[in-house]
Design brief:
This protein is an all-alpha fold. It has helices spanning 3-10, 14-20, 22-45, 49-58, 79-88, 97-100. Helix 1 (3-10) packs across helix 2 and helix 3 (22-45) crosses helix 4 (49-58). The longest helix is centred in the N-terminal third of the chain and has 24 residues, at 22-45.
Amino acid sequence: MSHEEIAIALGVPRSTLEKHFEYELSVGAYRKRLEAIDAMHVAARAGNVAAQKAYLALTPRAAITPLPKPEAAPKGDGKKATAQAASVAAHVGTDWETLLTPPATQQ
């Protein structure tokens, strides 16, 4: 309810309501919202799919860091050639590097 509606329901002027019940008016709405969100969370955990969807819609999401843009392949090279070139050094920097890189020959 708006402050005006509450004042009318109680039969007092809005200024009197806001003067004497400032704390209740400012905190009351947040408490009721918290109670509703808590009830929605309980229902969601109990398996209520509608409550799960509504609860997730209220939950803020973490910002996702965008992936870097892949380097463009030179003109004329298709997907297959690009994939083949990338596969040549795919093992570098992994545990497979020591297994797949031939040992240096001594002369």
